[in-house]
What does this fold into?
Amino acid sequence: MAKPFQQNIVSRRFIEVMDELIELGRVENMKEFCHRLDYLPQSLSQIRKGKRDITIELLSKVFFEFHGNPVFILLGYGPKIVEENTMPVIPKNDVDKARPIELQKLVDKLEELVQTKSELILELRAEIARLKAEIKSKAEESN
It folds into this structure.
């Protein structure tokens, strides 16, 4: 029996960022939030209810459109929203203070991760096809 879906913490932090944007008046409501991100309100509702997780593409849109802090969303550090094109770096230890870096570096890293994931999926699909063919061949040999 399949385990029930359990939403990850990144999706919950994403909702916190959206709620803060609404509280700050940067968006009027969830409907406007979805419209500006070109995202279906029904899908966002599923995320809010804990029935779905956010995608990397949605994270990227929030970074660019609303300056949501990717470090907060992904790791829980720093403010939920940052100034345009800057964001805090995770402190190396409690003595270090966060310093701004370019948002583009994180976006580039996210894109690299998406590409790596896509390549891995293609490799796994090819391996699955190869194994299926091998199983079929052995089944035919035994008949």
Summary: The beta strands are 86-88, 100-102. The chain has a mean pLDDT of 82. Helices lie at 9-23, 30-37, 41-48, 56-66, 70-75, 103-142.
